[in-house]
Amino acid sequence: MEIKLRPKSILVIGGGSGIGLAIAKELLQSGAKDVILASRNLDKLKEASRCLKCGFGQRVFTLSVDITNVQGNMETIKKAQALLGDKSKLDGLVISSGVNFDASNWKGFNLSEADWDRVMDTNLKGVFFFMRDFANYLYENKIKGNICIISSISAHRDMLSPYQISKHCISRIVNAYGKHLCERGVVLNCVEPGPVYTEMMPHLKKYTDGVREGEPWPDASIKRLVRPEEIAKVTCFLMSQLGETMSGDCVVVAGGTKSIFPT
Ligand SMILES: NC(=O)c1ccc[n+]([C@@H]2O[C@H](COP(=O)([O-])OP(=O)(O)OC[C@H]3O[C@@H](n4cnc5c(N)ncnc54)[C@H](OP(=O)(O)O)[C@@H]3O)[C@@H](O)[C@H]2O)c1
Q1: Are 24 and 54 a contacting pair, CB within 8 Å?
Q2: Interior CA angle at 182 toward 23 and 22, to 5°?
Q3: In testing the pocket of ligand 1, which one of 23, 119, 129, 198 has its CB within 8 Å of the most ligand atoms?
């Protein structure tokens, strides 16, 4: 069976770097007609868009979006649709945006309110409301579409840090809403990556991902980090017509992380 993307014109929030950029590349390789890279830093997005290869008829756009600005969601969706023009309908969303925070502070009750708000507003509140507004937009416009959220394997860890709490909550929200949204033609799933070497995780540079040189990653059965491109392939699967066979699932892509799923 050939796996085909279901949506054709896809907004990728957090698409300017790391996992989000790898997803944008893979969406184009899998036949997306349009990909819109979105995040706060427009210069970074423009730079990222230059490394994406478009085939015949494919287009890449950039859009400035701060996912914490919940009041701006409908305006963002309108702007994304305006970029596409009349001949394409925005019908897919990937949310890969996210922030971590200084790990030295991660276990303490000395966590500041500002750190809590920054992480929760970006990874939980922002993601929830954008997902909600996008799902409503699809339903109101009678568009069948797919949404994929990039959560984290941290969703399964003890909820010691706001990052872990935010990822736990967003994964559970996907489980709950995904089951119901599919009745409205909206397919919602999420990916829970294990550690991946990106700008967010510079300390992982010394470990191999099976392609880059480096030390084995001791916590994964596969003894290496998972690569952004591999997360991207799983995301494209969830954005395909087979995504609806999951509807509300969270797929762990972590090479058999032992500290979470001990044998
Ligand atoms: N790397 C890992 O080990 C790992 C593991 C599990 C899960 N994840 C998750 O994977 C996702 C992607 O992370 P990554 O590793 O690829 O790191 P990354 O390269 O730092 O990507 C995060 C992206 O989020 C965007 N962003 C941050 N705040 C935003 C906001 N308020 N509004 C819109 N965009 C915002 C950033 O762009 P701007 O600065 O331009 O806004 C950036 O492009 C995150 O959700 C992360 O939690 C990562």
Answers
A1: no
A2: 0
A3: 198
Would you identify the CATH topology of the domain 9-195+228-253?
Answer: Rossmann fold (3.40.50)
- Whether 239 lines ligand 1, by a CB cut-off of 6 Å, is no
Is 226 in contact with 166 (CB distance < 8 Å)?
Answer: no
Provide the residue ranges of all domains of the chain, joining segments of one domain with +. 9-195+228-253
Structure tokens at 109: 């009750």
Residues present in the chain in total: 263
Cβ count within 10 A of residue 153: 25
Judge if the beta carbon of residue 19 lies within 6 A of ligand 1: yes
Query: Cα of 176 to ligand 1 centre, how many Å?
Result: 23
Q: Of 138, 12, 123, 24, give the one whose Cα is nearest residue 65.
A: 12
What is the residue type of 99?
A: V
Q: Going residue by residue through the chain (263 aa), what tens digit of pLDDT does each one get?
A: 778 999 899 999 999 999 999 999 999 999 999 999 999 999 999 999 999 999 999 999 999 999 999 999 999 999 999 999 999 999 999 999 999 976 555 555 678 889 899 999 999 999 999 999 999 999 999 999 999 999 999 999 988 888 999 999 999 999 999 999 999 999 999 999 999 999 999 999 999 999 999 999 999 999 999 999 999 999 999 999 999 999 999 999 999 998 886 65
**The pTM is what?**
0.97
